[in-house]
Amino acid sequence: MSKKRTTTKRITKQSFIGGTLILVAAGILNRLLGFVPRILLPRIIGAEGVGLYQLGYPFMLMMMTVITGGIPLAVAKLVAEAESAGNEGKVRKVMKVSLVLSIGLGILFTGFCYLGADWITSHLLTDKRVFSTFQVMSPIILVVSVSAVYRGYFQGRRNMIPTALSQTFETLVRIAGMLLLSWLLLPYGLEYAAAGAMLGVLAGELGGMVVMLLMYAWTRKDYLLYEKAVIGKNHQHMGGIAALKQLVRIAVPVTASKLVGSASYLFESILTAQSLARAGIATAAATAQYGALQGMVMPILLLPSALTFSLSVSLVPSLSEAAARGDMRTIHMRLHQSLRLALVTGAPFAVMMFILAGPLCQFLYGQGEISIMLKMMAPIALFIYFQAPLQAALQALDRPGTALVNTTAGTVVKLALILLLASNPRMGILGAVMAINLNTVLVTLMHYRSVSRMLRFSMKSAEFVRTGAAMALMGLTCWAIDRMGFISSGLLRFFLAASAGFVVYLAAAIMLKLVDKSDFGRLPFLKKK
User: Fold this and answer.
1) I need a surface site. Which of 17, 295, 343, 419 has the fewest CB within 10 A?
2) How many Cβ atoms sit within 10 Å of the Cβ of residue 64?
3) 285 near 359, Cβ under 8 Å?
4) CA atoms of 126 and 472, how far apart (whole Å)
5) CA gap 8, 1 in Å, rounded
6) b/e per residue, 350-385, with b = 16+ CB within 10 A?
7) Cβ distance 385 to 345 under 8 Å?
8) Distances (CA, A) of 195 to 45, 129, 169, 176, 293
9) pLDDT tens digits, residue range 273-331?
């Protein structure tokens, strides 16, 4: 007995909720930390430099999705099955085959991107200055392909700590590397400064992979001891071909679903750049505009989604459990709570981004002129925050195909509108903003319609009216304080306007009974409190 305790004491597992909370906490921390280079990088290399850095990223994301889209999930599922059967031999076989598959694909796509960088950057991305950034970016594909396998392995073991640690370490190294290397290479030109920022990303990914490998080596010894002392040699033979077939069978459908999102992002970047060129906008100006949209405006817009992400994570297991019992009352109640909290928590951020767009962009990036894009996108922010719980509901209720169809339809509309609007000289980048807005609204409404028809679910219009009233009071407060002429400091006016606005909104939300104490229990990181 003592030997069993000795060999298993360091084997770490968490419950489903416990593991989820670890990842949510790490995700929120990393999102907040990740905002640091979003603020500082434009001050070092400007909007045009951010555009060079950002322009090739969708292409790399597309390549990585092919490799990492479904493999981590497949590895996690097969490792969990093998562990439950006490078959450590199968775990090793799955790891060996998945590593060979991922590394092989990683080498293939890395070589393709590196050798084809000249053609890709000159024909697809329309700005040849992104060439150096694209070449530096290419090895990231191989690094991520290795990390993905180990991430799936630890998820299968129900140990989320290595993933959380590696993500946090990767973020810290990436922030330091991006800022330092872009600053050091700036004297050599904007092209090399952007490549330096991407080199920092590569350093971060390498750091995260090293943490994964160290954690694997450390825990692997414990699993070998546990296998010998407790399980015994339960090595059911499993051939490499059989393991490969199981991996592919699980990974391909998941990868196909994720490819839609990656392809949408890729074609959006390509079509936006080409449409701006057709509108007569110079290449450097078009790159700067795209960099401002994707590298500055979108991060502000998506920052509050950390809250709705937590709601979505909490919602999936709750709905899945209720659906298994056939408990429609609980499904309706949980879905209503999540959507209402997404609405109530997202509303004040949407107001602040609309009313205070100018000072927000000026103080964060030193570029107040990009505030028009943020002001245009702020009204649809609520649709973004609403979309996450709706998509989570479709996945939890075994309707991922419905979510995929809705997303695909929205993508087709968005790309068509980018071609139509962004190529208009009178609209330019604002046409792309309008296309993204319409896509967000369309997909969210389609998700809501699918959930409503499937569950016969609807929200009362009075909730939207009360939220609108609280938003209006907050907006008037922010607007009035921001225009106080006797406060000479613009930064002080901004903080006073934002703080007073949030206080007014919170008071109105409580008075109008938009929230109560029990609602905060749906947020995983506040549940204990």
Assistant:
1) 17
2) 22
3) no
4) 43
5) 11
6) bbbbbbbbbbbbbebbebbebbbbbbbbbebbbbbb
7) yes
8) 11, 10, 21, 15, 19
9) 888 888 888 777 777 888 788 878 888 888 777 666 655 555 554 565 566 667 778 77
